[in-house]
Amino acid sequence: MDTFSLLLSGFGVALQPANLLWALFGSALGTAIGILPGIGPALTIALLLPVTISLAPTSAFIMFAGVLYGAMYGGSTTSILINTPGEAGSMMTALEGNKMARAGRGAAALATAAIGSFVAGTIATIVLTFAAPAVAELAFYFRPSDYFALTVLAFTSVAVVMGASRVRGFISLFIGLALGLVGIDAMSGQPRLTFGVEELLNGIELTVVLVSLFAVGEILYVSSRYRGTSESTLPIKGQIWMTKEDWKRSWKPWLRGTLIGFPMGALPGSGSEIPTMLSYTLERKLARHKEFGRGAIEGVAGPEAANNAAAAGILIPLLTLGLPTSATAAVLLAAFQNYGLQPGPFLFTSNPELVWGLIASLYVGNVMLLVLNLPLVGIWVKLLAIPRPQLYAGILVFATIGIWGVSGSVIDLVCMVIVGLMGYVMRVYDFPIAPVLIGLILGPMAEVQLRTALAAGQGNPVVLVSTPLSATLLCIAVLVFFVPILIKRLRANA
Amino acid sequence: MPSEELSREGEAARARETSSARPWWLGAAVIALGLVCLYGGYQLPQGARHAGIGPGLFVTAVGAALVILGLLLTVQIARGETFEAQDAEDASGSEKADPAAFVTALAAACVPALTIETLGLPLTAMLSFALVARSFGSRRIGLDLVSGAVLGTLAWLLFSRLGLQLGDFLPVAGI
What we know:
A: mainly alpha; about 70% helix; B: about 65% helix; transmembrane helix (chain A); Tricarboxylic transport membrane protein (chain A); DUF112_TM (chain A); membrane (chain A); transmembrane (chain A)
């Protein structure tokens, strides 16, 4: 079957009434958590995981996709109206968006953000539709050494790009790798790093680590440095919507943002911060209006498009190679594993209903989110009226349920405290958090591929660079590691 | 690993006073974590019969890497590396830490591990909810206790029905 008919059958799945409801639920929840502080898409999906066990995987992933996209839409609203980005990817939006709102153009800023998100999300989904099967086709030819090289590249880029310093990025990564080693070794059946604790034989769950780092770590950190909520929400009642001029100034940044965001999202380590930052810088450079810094609409349109396109971009390596490139992608990978599914080229042949239902639901979700966000933005903003003490208290209760409900193990709750403290320390000393999660979930895969490759090569390490692809990928990994140092040196000399 | 990380716990508490000074303990903690991995890897076979590598090698490699990274971090700290706390949505990194609030929030995080098996989810939720709210400066303790209990009970009813194993309502009373 060609891509088009597969997509059509995907729509057949996504448009079933039950799945439409799940998409709506996911989109609404995603918008809500995008607006609320302290809780993002990765944490939300991790907390939803235990509840979805009884749900068909297709419905669960349709809901998760709604959360992922919805958070990107919701994040922009708080950036514009109260100058506190709800998500990391909305930081750039706050720069110009909040200025626009202060100048009484909040409605236009919200509109260009929502429509830009829709345009970018839809274009990115179209590209995803046609690119994903092609990449999956290529991935069929991947040997274990290729996979190993790919994971090494992912590790290096995540650690180098995400951290304030490379040392701290790699420490985060290796802590994740160490946590991933705990439990019974899949290939030899021997327990590793369990030190006699029976509950650790099954390993440390990604969700436990993720919930502890993101919920408990955040609560400890914010409570100790809470500055109160002083910034008030700017009103948008009765403002003028986008004018003809606004449309004219917005459509190019939307397209440029998509062009930057999508490939960046597919690359490991860039997350949604870097593409939005790049898009903002580009728009600022291109702008002929001397309005930047005082509320230029291009500075909202570009980054907002970029972050939605990046959200679609992370799905390409995730679905086709099983390679997570961000914290949210790591938890989606854990969700696949919970269902006993392994994303990768075989997922396209073994579960076409799931893959294409998911992709089709992205189109549907984008339309829903546009409707949910444009006319109803006033209702969503009311969520911010929840007082912070009770909001964070509620997040801890749900974190407890998320951890206790899966395993019923007190050891996991003890882990919650320890890893939560680690999350606190990481925030205070500026260690990146995503590399821990990527190391934790990708480490065991990297090890299996390494050991399979070496066993096939009779233990000769040359097998690791024996295919052109593995050699190339490892070379790129080395470059990713060294180029930033070289650039620094050159700059220092100049 | 748990005993190791428990010692980090104490160090984390100490760090709050010294975060402006040189956080030597941070390098030490990473090295210690690496040593734990090295010790764990040492007990496992490094090679395997089929010419590949055994279950221990990866553990040893990760341990060695952590030790080296810990040393590098220590060198950086000696050279005066600065650590800027991250900005969060409701918190500014430049703000001074409030130890009382931190300890209250930490107590809230410890509550579930201590009470969930005897008091059950609803009462555990009540306690940790009130503690977190307190750490954020809420003064209506009675109301917070009630909200926590209501949230915990509703969540227990809903999620038990959805198939989560959340234990008994009040295990100590056998309900």
